[in-house]
Amino acid sequence: MKNDGKATKTLIMHAALEIFSREDFENATMRYIAERAGVTTSNIYNHFKNKNDLYVQLISTIIERTSRELAMHLTGLSNTRNKLYRMTHYYLNFFQDNVHIARLFYARTNLSYWYEFEKAFKTARASGALFIKIMEEGQRKGELRSDINLHMLGHIYHGALRHMVVHWLYNQDSYSLSDMADGFAEAIYEASRAKETGNETFTCPFMKGDGPKELLRPAVST
Length: 222
Known about the structure:
Blueprint: H1 2-20, H2 30-37, H3 41-45, H4 51-74, H5 80-97, H6 99-108, H7 111-116, H8 118-140, H9 150-170, H10 181-192, E1 207-208, E2 211-212
Antiparallel strand pairs: 1-2
């Protein structure tokens, strides 16, 4: 009986993911979710207090899952550059392979929701703190510059990830999102790494060749 309840809850959350990723939160009714899951509306209320609770549990479950998977992907890596590359590849591959989740997080979830739903916000903040932890370790080891504001860099990193995913969704996932991982990770690392003493000149990692290239945009054939 307990296993049946768990299976039903999983069905409901899968249905909620599909609907929340397609509809605005206000338009995604519990009746609509129940129909998609093949259960009664009252059955949903056996597992969730209300639509807000369902939404928060769904978001939190996804973030907790990705945090565990990412931690496993980083196991055994000691070099900051390798960790940054691995983390960036994980994020972009994950959203590329889970379009519903990409839409839910970056297209359908209003930014104000993250602050309104405290549990989801705390879970997301804990997940985002991993970037800061990796970069702090790099500073302690002398791999990265000590004068960088890592919290500001974290905003840049996660903000750019959001921009890349949103742009990819806007273009109807017509190109490989994961192809952008190496260039982006290298740009962040090069801007952060400790430079050798001497007369080394700084080269902006976003500039290559004879002039500027369009920032973080892959070549898409038309």
